[in-house]
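Listing S7. Sequence submitted for prediction.
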Amino acid sequence: MTTFYGGTPPVSFTNDDLYRLGKGINGATGPSGPTGGTGGTGGTGSTGSGPIVCPGFASTVYIDLPWGTLPRQITSGFTGGDVLVIKLNPPAGVVSSGPGSIGLAEWGGDYQPYMRTAILSTTPCDLTPNPATYNYKIATNIKFAFQVGGVQQPGIFLMQAGVPYYLTLVNQNQYHQQTVPNGHPCNMSIDLTKPPGT
């Protein structure tokens, strides 16, 4: 189960729901938001404020991704002026015996080769690169290799067990210029493979 924040309350999707949303199967648009009471509105539940808000962006799309090797996850409602924040939760008391990975690619947009910047950090919304830790990527498709515990390996981001990490992705190039027009859809597929031993 993956939870997307943006409506009130947050909306959870099963992997089948996410697949259907990504493919647009049977007119899938996501469950409606709340109605009545305070006058809530419907929606896909994938954009908006949620528990994380990154200043300076049209909207923050936040995903608290379950730890594990999951079927492909698909965002919904991610557009050019937005920021995507994915929380990763390596469990306490583990050490990986090899690297895992997280990869992101555009899904369902116009599939243009838009440059994106992504940073892994213990702080959400952090866009500060640190070359010594291998925490950033600037590319059209983003892929990080990571390990949990142990000794830092070349080219692999080192996480500590039991510490939450955030992958923050923006549609910007290496010059901090926005690459996708505001409001232009650019949903992302997310593939997480946990490191062995975790």
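Caption to Listing S7: primary sequence and predicted structure tokens for the chain studied. The chain has one domain: 2-30+44-193. Residues 1-49 have pLDDT under 50 and may be disordered.
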